[in-house]
Amino acid sequence: MVNAVASPASDRVARAWDVLAHVPDPEVPALSLVDLGVVRAVRDGAAGLEVDLTPTYSGCPATAAIALDARLALERAGLGPVRIATVTDPAWTTDWIGPAAREKLRAYGIAPPIGQAPKGKRALFAEDVRPACPRCDSGRVEKTSEFGSTACKALYRCLACREPFEYFKCI
To answer: The pTM is what?
Structure first.
């Protein structure tokens, strides 16, 4: 039996994924760029690491900050040079936020998206949902604003504990 040994290229890519898994999203710092699903690919190219990032939506004001944070983290880890590419097809979807990341959102005080993103459309206007309060888990909530701190979130208030919270819309 032959022992498989990781190539330096695959080891470098694995290290890059690990670094990016610790880079917080600037708008939702409870999630890393990997948790949020914006890191789509990492390759070891001829001129260095190639990282594909997909913004949460085309007008996301944090896109440049995310690319800069990713580049700096990888360079500080000794993995440079780094080329960052913005990839918009396929478009980002909340379906790319995994179960562990959804639990991180809840623990941070943001209700995670309910269900799957609508097929064929981007829903910046919150669908008619009743997210559970991330603080007390009550389903007795009311929407107070279509938009929260970012366009991808809506504001709600819990009628049980009276606390306000954001809901991360299904996009």
So the answer is: 0.84
